[in-house]
Design a protein that fits this description.
about 475 residues, 8-stranded parallel barrel, Proline dehydrogenase, flavoprotein, FAD-linked_oxidoreductase-like
Length: about 475
């Protein structure tokens, strides 16, 4: 990756967590939770008193901007307009001082390391993400060279994730995110999905056969694909295998990102193939986790079946549980194709499904111990409360096979409360150049509109703390 412009003291002052480092001891002293008993954590925003005023102002400004629909809908066009009006350097400086500084760790390894050290000082852990960006029907990025470039970036991310947390054992499990369609064509996934969904799908597409091909490097010739597609599948399996192999060697667990429903059967096939090879009883792990989205109607049943199948096969099982993105896109695709809408009817139904899936997974964790691991990836305070309470009731240790996840730059009042109480908490951290990351952030914002709108409470807590400081000076 390239290098950012030299950071000024002002930008250092604005970086998330800088002003809170000195307050970590005070946070721990205020913890209301011990390993001997559970009580509800307080998400009242008191932690914001420990942030610098500049950090509070930036967070409030950025979160308010991100809740403005036109900015999210036309983000890329507005970025291009700003570059023409202000110039590349000035518009870039504005972005670095605002959106980029709020949600991104940096570009260079040194900058990422600085962000991670700040998080560690606050009891939080990194979940690095390579910001690859491609729409399922995009023709802009094609060819094996693009996927091979992404492979190199993923391998570097494995190394960075591990090296940031040396020596081993001091920071618990090391996790990173993996996007399958960064290594294989969405078009191939759509083709595979169409075959998987046919009655009596061919055994050629079994995870066991693909896992064997990954491990042996033997040439695959699937009858449902043409020669070019078979070659691309072979190359894709090789890339996925190399990432998993390297991650296993470096003791880094891979959390596979969820994507569009119309790709999910193929993605699940590929992830199951990786899990068959790398989540076996002799490997430890789980080294490969899948993501389950509660906004889909069939998630609870798919999750139950996957957990039971892993148990029967003697595999370890890792799950990142999210409410999910892509809802607007999914509804639009279903409408255009005249098919049944795969999503829950509303947010309440999604929350109810999330809670059911959470209860299912916590029960499996309690029964299987470290062979079954879960990330509660949620900004929802009620879900976090439910998870911590059930962990206590089921005897699941705080820093054990269950962890929590939120986005960098968001939901700090929840993340810090969990971290200072002793839970394992990860922040999803994209990193890279401005040119790489801003389109990625805009796309994620478009997919996660509900999360950004749901940050209303966080904005209110930030506003309260700023008003308190202003009144104190009057």
């Amino acid at each position: 990756m390239g290098h950012l412009l030299p950071k000024t003291p002002y930008l250092e002052w604005l970086h998330p967590g800088v002003m809170m480092l000195r307050a970590w001891g005070a946070l721990r002293a205020q913890a209301g939770h011990s390993a001997l008993g559970w009580q509800a954590l307080s998400f009242d925003g008191g932690v914001f008193r420990l942030k610098g005023t500049g950090e509070l102002v930036r967070a409030l400004l950025v979160l308010r901007l991100c809740s403005w629909p036109p900015l999210i809908t036309h983000g890329l066009a507005l970025q291009a307009w700003a570059q023409r009006l202000l110039g590349v350097r000035l518009s870039g400086a504005v972005l670095r001082a605002s959106v980029y500084g709020q949600f991104v760790a940096g570009e260079t390894a040194q900058e990422v390391r600085g962000c991670v050290q700040q998080l560690q000082g606050l009891g939080l852990r990194p979940l690095l993400a390579v910001p690859t960006e491609e729409e399922p029907d995009s023709a802009g990025k094609t060819g094996e060279a693009w996927y091979e470039g992404n492979l190199r970036a993923m391998l570097q991310c494995v190394d960075l994730s591990r090296d940031l947390l040396e020596p081993p054992g001091l920071a618990g499990n090391v996790l990173m995110q993996l996007k399958v369609t960064a290594l294989t064509s969405p078009r191939l996934c759509k083709e595979l999905t169409s075959w998987i969904r046919r009655p009596g799908a061919s055994l050629e597409l079994s995870p066991e056969r693909l896992a064997e091909a990954m491990d042996s490097g033997q040439e695959l010739q699937l009858s449902c694909l043409n020669d070019e597609q078979n070659r691309h599948l072979q190359a894709s399996l090789s890339r996925l295998h190399r990432v998993a192999q390297h991650a296993r060697l470096r003791q880094v667990q891979l959390l596979v990102d969820a994507e569009y429903t119309f790709l999910n059967p193929a993605l699940c096939l590929l992830v199951d193939s990786l899990a068959t090879r790398w989540n076996g009883p002799g490997e430890g792990g789980p080294w490969v986790w899948n993501t389950y989205q509660a906004y889909l109607k069939d998630t609870h049943e798919r999750l139950r079946q996957a957990a039971e199948a892993a148990d029967r096969a003697g595999l370890t099982f890792g799950v990142k549980l999210v409410r999910g993105a892509y809802m607007d896109k999914e509804k639009e695709v279903a409408r255009l194709q005249g098919t049944e809408d795969p999503t829950q009817p509303d947010y309440l139904a999604t929350c109810q499904n999330y809670n059911r899936c959470l209860e299912l997974m916590l029960t499996y964790v309690a029964q299987r111990g470290p062979k079954c691991q879960l990330m509660v990836a949620s900004h929802n305070e009620e879900s976090v409360h439910q998870a911590t309470k059930r962990m206590r009731e089921l005897g699941i240790p705080l820093d054990g096979p269950v962890c929590f996840g939120q986005l960098l730059g968001m939901c700090d009042h929840v993340s810090l409360a969990l971290g200072q109480a002793g839970y394992a908490v990860y922040k999803s951290i994209p990193y890279g150049s401005l040119e790489e990351v801003i389109p990625y952030l805009i796309r994620r914002a478009q997919e996660n509109r509900s999360v950004l709108h749901g940050a209303r409470r966080e904005r209110e807590l930030l506003s309260q703390e700023l008003r308190r400081r202003l009144l104190r000076k009057i």
